[in-house]
Amino acid sequence: DAKTTQPTSMDCAEGRAANLPCNHSTISGNEYVYWYRQIHSQGPQYIIHGLKNNETNEMASLIITEDRKSSTLILPHATLRDTAVYYCIVRWWAPGVKAAGNKLTFGGGTRVLVKP
Amino acid sequence: GAVVSQHPSWVICKSGTSVKIECRSLDFQATTMFWYRQFPKQSLMLMATSNEGSKATYEQGVEKDKFLINHASLTLSTLTVTSAHPEDSSFYICSASRGGGTNSPLHFGNGTRLTVT
Q1: What is the 3-state secondary structure (H, E, C) of B70-115?
Q2: Which of A6, A53, A103, A110 best tests the B interface by mutation, with the highest count of B CBs <10 A?
Q3: Measured between CA atoms, how close is B3 to chain A, in angstroms?
Q4: Is A82 helix (H, G, I), strand (E, B) or coil?
């Protein structure tokens, strides 16, 4: 799986949008971009994923550049409960591939601190 | 949505004893589950892939005889830490997806914090 590069940490203000960048310059055609977050002492929580189109759900938006070499996770209105480590992961998948090939490899992530 | 449950959430055991951790998929069948380990201030490290009805696949450096994995049903995988030692103290997390060749995301349990005294 392609490696990702994320800032080690970032602060953001409560109520403001939080934009989390991720670089995945070696991503291949069958690799999706996934975002998870881990609040202290809990298991990772799935946020969103995408291939090449921008995606939005109730938690966040995912913006993927046209060349797919980078992406940005947007938390539209950060709250104190969004303080967590955010992981950007690329995961290979192709139709017919069993789940065993769909493991997630975690990097260091970005430690996000939302401040009042 | 999909839910993965782990039990226990924390356990303290004495050195030399064995500890079993359960991972259940609550509203879907999981042919494959993954076991991770996380040390303080570090990221998650994949330990092994648990396959229903067959042997688990271990990552390089993970001792299969020490970390026994059993995936006897489509909703349950267990990880047994045998002859635990203080260096095995860690946060163990399982994950699963609906799998079967879909692109559905992996969902994670809330982890089990193991402390070996």
Answers
A1: EEEECCEEEEEECCCCHHHCEEEEEEECCCCCCCCCCEECCCEEEE
A2: A103
A3: 11
A4: helix
Helices (H) and strands (E) in chain B, counts: 0, 11
Closest CA to B89 of B23, B10, B8, B34: B10
pLDDT score of B106 more than 90: no
* Residue A67 to residue A21: CA distance in whole angstroms: 15
- Give chain B's mean pLDDT: 91
Residue count (chain B):
117
**Residue B77: closest CA among B3, B1, B6, B2:** B6
Q: What is the pLDDT of residues A80-106, one digit of tens each?
A: 999 999 999 998 776 666 554 578 889
In the predicted model, is pLDDT for residue B4 greater than 60? yes
For residue A51, the one-letter residue type is L
Q: Which residues of A touch B55 (CB under 8 A)?
A: none
Interface of A to B at Cβ within 8 Å reads: 32, 34, 36, 38, 41-46, 49, 87, 93, 95-100, 102-109
Task: Kindly report, residue by residue over A33-69, the tens digit of the pLDDT.
Answer: 999 999 998 999 999 999 999 999 999 999 999 999 9
Give A104's contacts in chain B (Cβ within 8 Å): 34, 46, 95, 106
Which of B7, B10, B31, B103 would you mutate first to test chain A, the one with the most A CBs within 10 A? B103
